[in-house]
Structures are given as C-alpha cells and as structure tokens.
Amino acid sequence: MVVSMTGFGRSSIGNGQINVNVEIKTVNHRFTEFYFRMPRQLLVLEEKIKKTMSEYFRRGRAEIFVTVDGDGLINRKFQLDWNLLDQFFSEMEKVKEKYGLDDKPSIGDIVHIENIFTVEEEQTDSSELEEVVLDAVRNAALQVKKMRMEEGQVLKADLEEQLKKISTIVEYVKEFAPNVIEAYKQRLQQKMNEYTSGLVDETRLLNEVAIFADKVDINEELTRLQSHIRQFTKTLEDEGLIGRKLDFLVQEMNREVNTIGSKANDATIAGSVVEMKSTLEKMKEQVQNIE
C-alpha cells in the first residue's frame, strides 16, 4: 500500500488542571527520525512518545511539538533560609551592642537579604500527566496517518499514470527497433552500390549488417525494462515499507533507458529515450516521498 511520508496532525486534550497541545509534522527521510520540542519536564516521556509514534509511522522525519497550559504541570513552594536569617539577627545584635543602637531589623530589611527567599519547583504526579500527553500524541498521530494514506493514494494514481506512459513508449520502441537495422542495411547497400558499380558482395553486406545488429540490439534492455515495470506495478499493491524498493526499481529502469540510448543509433529512439528519462525523473521525485 502506498503511504506518503508527508502529513500533519493536531490534538488538544485537557483534564481540568492542564491542557496538552500536540502538533506533529512529518516529511520524507531515508530512515525514521524524531525531533522533539516540549517542556523540559516532559523530556522523561520522550522514549514513550517515540514508541507511540512508531505504531503509526515506520519511516520519515517526525517533528513533535508539545505545549502544556495550566498550573498543574509543576508545584511551586516558597522557601525561607532560616539558618541564614538566624545568622543575620545574630550579627545585627553584635552591631547593636558595639554601636549602642536600639533599632530592630524590619521586614523590609529581611526582604532585601540576598538569597533569603527561594521558590522551589517540583513536578506533579507524572502518571496522570503522562496519560494525557500520550493520548494527545495518539490523536495527532492518527490525523497524520490519515493524511499520509490519502496523499499516498494520490501518489499511487500519478505513478500508475507515469508507468503507463513509459510502458507505451517501450512497446513502440520494441516495434520500431527492427527498422533501425533495415534502414542501416539499405544505407550500406546503397553505398556499396555506389563504390562497386552495383557489384555488391552479399556475404560481406550480411556480415556488416549482422555486426551492426548486434551492436544496436536493445531487446535485452527492453525486456528488463518491461520486467521492472511489472515489478513496480506489483509493489504498489504490497503492504509494508515499499518506498526504498520503488526507488531501487526507478534507478534500474533509468539504467536500462540509458543503455538503450547509448546503443540505439537512431534519432527516433533517442527521442523516446529522452521522454522516458523525463518521466522517470518525475517518478523518482514522487517515490522519494513514499514510506
């Protein structure tokens, strides 16, 4: 089945205290790669999110963006450094005794003591948060998968159309190829008639034509090309990861077309080769986006 590697999905789930927003974008890539952008408190969930994503995608680069709204993500505690405050008052008593002062430190004096107050953060119960995050990831991943499958069908239809075009050209070249040898034989015979005043050595003529026919024989390449087209068509219906196999088949078809172009000494066939190469280039671009 043809599945594209390009997709987008968004999900938002809340539990009363927090609201988790997830966006997932996927693009083509040779392997499977995950890129995360989320609060540092959620980094402990990275492996679990990867495992969840792997249930929906098997190839491509996925960018996962997670944001959390609300006060339920962390708890903040106000802390007072009592030891430091005790030292402050102890030292202030020494100052009062030494200089005969009567004033006592005010709240304002205490507030301005550096590092006397701190705010500590601690993460809330991770089990509930984990459940909400993973549910949001699953919902977004389902949307991405749906989009990738829909685009995959569009890619399949386009590839089948391109394959049909190449197959038609191959059939034409296969029928036309014998004309190249016959045309060469006539040109050679005409030249021999001109130089020998009509006394043509038929054996020599046939030998030359046979050598030429062997040089320009493209039947083997055409047969392999047709075989690759059949394999490509069959692979489009296969389940699982087919993108790399399709990419390989396109490369092999391109190789055969190049060989045909180098062997066939004919302008008509050369034109067909150019057309096939142009079509294969379009197919290559499409195939590189298939999972």
Fold and architecture overview:
The protein is α+β, with helices and mostly antiparallel strands. It folds into 3 domains: 7-70 and 126-148, Ribosomal Protein S5, domain 2, CATH 3.30.230.10; 74-123, no CATH class; 152-287, no CATH class. The chain contains 8 helices and 6 strands; from the N terminus they run E-E-E-H-E-E-H-H-E-H-H-H-H-H. It has helices at 46-54, 82-99, 107-111, 126-196, 202-215, 219-235, 243-263, 267-287, and strands spanning 7-14, 18-27, 32-37, 60-70, 74-80, 117-123. The strands form 2 sheets. The chain has a 4-stranded mixed sheet, covered by helices on one side. A hairpin with a 3-residue loop joins strand 1 (7-14) and strand 2 (18-27). Helix 4 packs antiparallel against helix 8 (267-287). The longest helix is centred in the middle third of the chain and has 71 residues, at 126-196. It is rod-shaped. The termini are close together.
Q: In terms of structural class, how would the helical and strand content be classed?
A: alpha+beta
- In terms of quaternary structure, what is this? single chain
Number of domains: 3
Shape: rod-shaped
Please specify the SSE layout and strand pairing.
Layout: E1 7-14, E2 18-27, E3 32-37, H1 46-54, E4 60-70, E5 74-80, H2 82-99, H3 107-111, E6 117-123, H4 126-196, H5 202-215, H6 219-235, H7 243-263, H8 267-287
Parallel strand pairs: 3-4
Antiparallel strand pairs: 1-2, 2-4, 5-6
